[in-house]
Amino acid sequence: MSTILVTGGTGNLGSLVTARLRVAGHEVRVLSRHAAEHPVDLRDGSGLDAAMAGVEVVVHCASSPRGGDEKAARHLIGAARRAGTVRNLVYISIVGVDVVPLGYYKSKLRVERLLEESGLGVTILRTTQFHDLVAQLVDTAAKLPVVPLPSGVRVQPIAVEEVADRLAELAVPTPSGRVPDMGGPEIATLPDLGRTYLAATRRRRRVVPLPLWGKAYAGFKRGGNLAPSHATGRGTFAQYAARRGR
Q1: Where does the NAD(P)-binding domain start and stop, copy by copy (predicted)?
Q2: pLDDT digits over 93-141, tens only?
Q3: 61 vs 165: CA distance, rounded Å
């Protein structure tokens, strides 16, 4: 059994990864700003060396669209080097970070590069968007009189539980480098998924496909965020929406 540190271990994905690793018998250190045992803010790195002591594997789930991911990665890499025991740093990334010019995606790609150039053993998994993200987008849009969703944008949503399963499998001392991408079982447009979700949650609202502009939107319309040849997920968005509706 290994000593494993999970960053963002109280979050949506990190908490599931933590639970799976503990069931497998590993010693897991949950690292986040709100964690009871290891309250570490990766943006300044305080307390990180103590949390990293003796760790063999790091699963890096902490991330923020508001920025700071690259600084956090540098602190994490530095602490892993100083610890001298880390054999594998597992990172969760996003399909399309190298082809869709969205600011958050660019930051995730730069973190990938930092890890690959760190000299540490690294495993990188890219996945498509989680079901929860699609639902959050629809819930936000549904606050308006009609529900505007980007037209022409297809997504391939995947269950966060399945991603947690895969990360737990990869959290071993032997690094795997860039592993095959992981996508959901189906591809659909955002407006169609919005209608599915609204119907399942019993909201009779009109979805309006909304054309947008910009290079990032064009990247999504080209399907840069999709992994059709890696549709390994099993749970569909309709199944997720039905559970939310209950």
Answers
A1: 8-133
A2: 999 999 999 999 999 999 999 999 999 999 999 999 999 999 999 999 9
A3: 13
Tell me the two tokens of residue 9: 């271990």
| Burial class of residue 179, CB neighbours in 10 A (0-12, 13-18, 19+) | middle
Backbone angles phi, psi at 103, to 5 degrees: -55, -45
Asked if 121 and 89 count as a contact pair (C-beta separation under 8 A), the reply is yes
| Per-residue pLDDT tens over the stretch 168-179 | 999 999 999 999
What single-letter amino acid sits at 48? L
Q: Are strands 177-178 and 122-127 parallel, antiparallel or unpaired?
A: parallel
Domains and CATH numbers, the chain: 3-245 (3.40.50.720)
First to last CA, the chain: 39
The number of residues making up the chain comes to 246
- For the chain, strand residue ranges (E) read 3-7, 27-32, 38-39, 57-60, 88-94, 122-127, 147-150, 154-155, 177-178, 188-189, 207-210
